[in-house]
Amino acid sequence: MSHYALTDLAKSLPAVVPFVGPETQERALGRPFCARLGANESQFGPSPLAIEAMTQAAQEVWQYGDPENHDLRQALAAHHNIDPGHITIGEGIDGLLLTLTRLTVAPGDAILTSQGAYPTFNYHAAGNGGTLHMVPYLNDHEDPQSLAEQAHHLGAKLVYFANPDNPMGSWHSADSVQDLIDNLPDSSLLVLDEAYIDLAPKGTAPDLRPETDNVIRLRTFSKAYGMAGARVGYAIGPKSLISAFDKMRNHFGVSRISQAGALAALKDQAYVAEIAQKVAQSRETLAEIAHDNNLIALPSATNFVTIDCGGDGDFARAVLEQTVARSVFIRMPAVAPMNRCIRISCGDAAAMALVAKVLPQALKAARSS
Predict the structure, then answer these.
(1) CA pseudo-torsion sign 100, 102, 106, 108
(2) How deeply is 276 buried, as exposed, middle or buried, from its count of CB atoms within 10 A (0-12, 13-18, 19+)?
(3) Fewer CB near the last or first residue (10 Å), C or N of the chain?
(4) Is-above-0.90 flag for pTM?
């Protein structure tokens, strides 16, 4: 009997995925969710201009998308007032992380992140043979000072830092992020994940300095732009690193439809501002729901709210399971002490009303189990 030849590295990796999708859970439940509030998608959807552009592009779907993503790169460069040579496009931030780790991580390289931070980065870094090291969160925030110190100690190849953060929704000021950049060793590349930056307060993002050698910044159309299913993200970094993406990226990974939608969405900044307001209102509503149930909503600069359930990880898991059993999809942080919390995405009035109805039922059931 013949055997296909996995590499030794592939054989050593666990057969896991970073997230179990809501569709998988719906199949297990045998019914659809009434509210999908666990994946930090924008229930408010994309700009009508983006929908129109994607509808028109669908008629041309027999054609491959532009492998250079030329029009979108030019538009993003104009939007940020930088040279397009500092920008590359990928299949969401996840796709960009895959290419980045393939480009930079060799077996045994020290890779640094925060314990409990976005697991897809860990998935790709370990998948390329990197050795993961983690620092704990500090007061429900990633700890930039500890990251800088450990980067020097380990000689870390990559340092992952999200601002604002997932899963806690917390954020640091632009000055704090710039201090982290300035205090990293020359050998470390900061992977600055800014997926939620369009929803954060002013003063959260440091100035764009794309020529800085030790930083690559990752942004997406999945959150404020409401296009998670289209899979469009982009990276901003030094030209030498950005051009290297062409050596390994999937050149046809971003479809013609996705490129058209992202280009139209980028042009409709008034819509993005409107969504930011709706998200802010939903965050307030979720905080009120938490308060009404004697829970604590943590401050958030994202399109979700993390809620402290007031117990340990087992209790929060029971609350999550009881909420899911009532057909509301939510998630929770995986690592203590953050796993005392649940995480609920923002949504429209109907979704928030459903949360207000279901959460007290789930809490009652969790407390009696």
Answers:
(1) positive
(2) middle
(3) N
(4) yes
